[in-house]
Amino acid sequence: MNSTLSLLLLWGPAVRAQQPAPASAASLLAFQQAHLGRILFSATRIPPTGYADDAHYIGYHAHTLTPKSSLYLTAFLTTSLPDALARLAPDAQRTDFMKRGSFQYCFYVDNELVYTAYLQPEPQYLIEENAQPVLHQPVLAPETSRRKSQSLWANLLANGGKKALAEGSHMLRLVIRPYIQSPLLQVGPVLADGQVALNVTRHAAPARAAALVAP
Question: Would you list the domain boundaries of the chain?
Fold first, then answer.
């Protein structure tokens, strides 16, 4: 028998056994409940179904940031975006306030507010309207084609982030709130908050990043 085939037959069952079993709905809900109001960061994209443990997230260790790095967020919101906007504009129709409101992102670097972004209104944008809404979004994804003229990360760098994220160790914090323009700007309470330690080895300004904000 071919030696390569023999190794595949020998190790095949063991490799399959090492693959994690899909998490149950109960364990996923328990994980969401335990992290309610928090933002977890990851180096790879988290599937919409999510995970039921912390092993897939960056956690407390520093994430090395280079021009080719990726950074994703998973936010366990305290309430869904439609419900949050409805509280800001109780007299408006659902289809109306979803066209005039979305998320406000506040970026802090080393405890200093650097940039505030207002994401484009987009009905049901990446929101799972279940018992505990979960938001999955790329923050920095060089492999993602740009859908609009500007990107969240590029705007952060252009508005103080380039200087704040100089080479070295930094703490990046993100606070997510709902906002609505009706006609005055109204901002609601915090939906999720989280931070990640970054080790910037070079200026992280990829040619492509995830487009999320209005030009």
Answer: 3-200
